[in-house]
């Protein structure tokens, strides 16, 4: 216990030393009020569409020149991802990852949103206030790369956004600055939910930035209870097994992976790819459905001690390439538990 107390004391002492340095450089911004800065220099780390909600909010603050006085971007160098395209469009300086140490000088804090790389200690410690991460779940539930997908896949009805501190050598284990709950709509896909959480995350990030650096000092450790993980998505997750999955499980799996990983199954030696899944005659979303060529109707039934349900699917044979494919209608029963 004494060891843990010493570690916390050292972290806070280090933070206070950094704040003293920043206050000396921004004495006019403080206006004689301790622990209050109105103009931060921010380095943003992100890669995909989830990053854009936070990056857009930071860019808006930069335009007003009230809370953000400098904003640059670090992103993957391998392709023109949404963050790089946004930076180029908005005229922001964009650095490829990995970033040179000298490029990190002159910034107060690093902000991460769906970056996808483990950030080394040298980068974290280059920022006087460290780094914070906008994570798409209510930590410690769904730590990892795909929290939104796993929340839907496991039938969660509530998720949210957590703003947390980044610690060296770990993913998603830092102290939490703030959290915002978000309800998951019954027919919502992961892509739809990610878009909503991206906006919520951006607003929550700005709320934290407005309370810097107090919110860093008030951050609390994640509880030991309720920890679960959301690793990277793999093609194997898209395989549907009628013998092992309930109708609800198939429906949730489809919502979690739709538009990201192909949803496939096998029936009577035919390899099929699914285009739409509905549960109890309700469509999963308002998106436009491709023209179906195979229609599955799972009827209702009962087996002692098992779950069952009704699910409807539209699919086509993977090996078919002709536009006018033969349509099939099948009936079966989902009886197994997920």
Could you explain the architecture of this structure?
GO terms for molecular function: methionyl-tRNA formyltransferase activity. InterPro entries: Formyl_transf_N (IPR002376), Formyl_transf_N_sf (IPR036477), Met-tRNA-FMT_N (IPR041711). Residues 106-206 form the Formyl transferase N-terminal domain. This is methionyl-tRNA formyltransferase. Pfam families: Formyl_trans_N (PF00551). The chain has 338 residues and is an alpha/beta fold. 30% of the residues lie in helices and 23% in strands. It has nine helices and 13 strands. It has helices spanning 2-25, 27-30, 49-64, 82-90, 121-124, 147-153, 190-210, 214-217, 247-257; strands spanning 40-46, 68-76, 94-97, 109-113, 131-135, 158-165, 176-183, 264-267, 270-279, 282-283, 294-298, 311-317, 328-332. The chain has a seven-stranded mixed β-sheet with strand order 3-2-1-4-5-6-7. It starts with a helix and ends in a 6-residue tail after the last strand.
């Amino acid at each position: 216990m004494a060891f843990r107390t010493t570690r916390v004391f050292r972290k806070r002492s280090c933070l206070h030393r950094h704040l003293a340095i920043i206050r000396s450089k921004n004495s006019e911004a403080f206006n004689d009020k301790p622990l209050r800065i109105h103009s931060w220099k921010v380095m943003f780390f992100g890669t995909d569409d989830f990053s854009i909600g936070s990056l857009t909010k930071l860019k808006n603050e930069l335009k007003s020149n009230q809370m953000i006085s400098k904003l640059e971007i670090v992103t993957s160098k391998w392709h023109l991802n949404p963050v790089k395209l946004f930076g180029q469009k908005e005229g922001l300086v964009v650095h490829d990852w990995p970033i040179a140490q000298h490029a990190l000088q002159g910034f107060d804090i690093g902000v991460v949103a769906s970056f996808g790389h483990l950030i080394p200690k040298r980068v974290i410690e280059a920022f006087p206030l460290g780094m914070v991460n906008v994570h798409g779940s209510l930590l410690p539930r769904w730590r990892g790369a795909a929290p939104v997908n796993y929340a839907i896949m496991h039938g969660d009805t509530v998720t949210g956004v957590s703003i947390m501190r980044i610690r060296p050598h770990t993913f998603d284990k830092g102290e939490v600055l703030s959290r915002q709950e978000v309800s998951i709509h019954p027919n919502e896909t992961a892509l739809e939910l990610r878009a909503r959480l991206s906006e919520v995350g951006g607003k929550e990030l700005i709320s934290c930035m407005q309370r810097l650096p107090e919110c860093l000092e008030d951050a609390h450790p994640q509880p030991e209870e309720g920890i679960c993980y959301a690793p990277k998505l793999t093609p194997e997750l898209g395989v549907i097994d009628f013998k092992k999955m309930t109708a609800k499980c198939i429906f949730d799996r489809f919502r979690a992976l739709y538009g990201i990983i192909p949803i496939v199954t096998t029936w009577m030696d035919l390899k099929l790819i699914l285009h739409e899944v509905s549960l109890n005659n309700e469509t999963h979303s308002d998106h436009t459905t491709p023209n179906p060529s195979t229609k599955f109707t799972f009827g209702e039934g009962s087996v002692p001690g098992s779950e069952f349900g009704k699910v409807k699917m539209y699919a086509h044979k993977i090996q078919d390439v002709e536009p006018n494919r033969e349509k099939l209608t099948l009936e079966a029963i989902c009886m197994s538990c997920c």
